[in-house]
C-alpha cells in the first residue's frame, strides 16, 4: 500500500516537471492522473506489486468510519440532552452482553472506545475470551435493538476498514 502511494506521488512529481510548472496545482493534477493509472493497472499488478486493495479506497473507508462515528456521536449527544431536560428523570439503565464479530485486538479496542466515547453508553469490560463486550447503556428498553444498532454501524464499519478482511 505504501508503494502505491509512492508511485502516485512520483507520477505527480513527473507530471509537474514535464509540464514545466512547479506548483501545487500541477502536482495535484499529476497526483490525480497517478490515481487513475493505479486504478487502470490494478488488475495487472494487483497481486504481485500493488496489493489487493487500492490505498485511496482504504483511505475512503477510514474517512467513512470517522464521519459515521461523528454522526452517531451527534445523535447520541442530542438524545442525552433531551434526557437531561426532561421534567421527570425516568431512565432505565442496563448492562448487557454484546457478542463480537470483530476478532483482532485493534478492532475490539477501537469498537470499545467508540462505544465509550458515545454519550449514554460505556464499555465496562471485555470478556476473557475476547468474544463479548459488557456495555452499560444509560436508558434503553430494547437491548436487541441496541445490539443491532452497534452491529450495523460501528462494527460493520470497522470490519470494512480491515485490510485483510
* Backbone shape: elongated
Query: What is the structural class?
Result: mainly alpha
Classify the oligomer: single chain
Residue runs with pLDDT of under 50 for 5 or more positions: none
* CATH topology-level name of the largest domain: Alpha-Beta Plaits
Count of the separate structural domains? 2
CATH top level of the largest domain?
Alpha Beta
**Helix content, binned percent:** 55-70%
Strand fraction equals 5-15%
Largest sheet report:
3 strands, antiparallel
- Count the beta strands: 3
The CATH architecture of the largest domain can be named as 2-Layer Sandwich
Strand order of the largest sheet: 1-3-2
Radius of gyration: 22 Å
N-to-C terminal Cα separation, in Å? Answer: 15 Å
Helix-strand pattern: HHHHEHEEH
Total number of helices: 6
Written description of the protein model:
- The chain is mainly alpha-helical.
- It folds into 2 domains: 1-50, no CATH class; 55-161, 2-Layer Sandwich (Alpha-Beta Plaits), CATH 3.30.70.
- It contains 6 helices and 3 strands, in the order H-H-H-H-E-H-E-E-H.
- It has helices at 2-19, 24-40, 42-50, 55-84, 105-117, 143-161; strands at 94-99, 121-126, 132-137.
- Strands 1-3-2 form a 3-stranded antiparallel β-sheet, with helices on one face.
- Helix 1 packs across helix 2, helix 4 runs antiparallel to helix 6 and helix 5 (105-117) packs across helix 6.
- It is elongated and about 70 Å long.
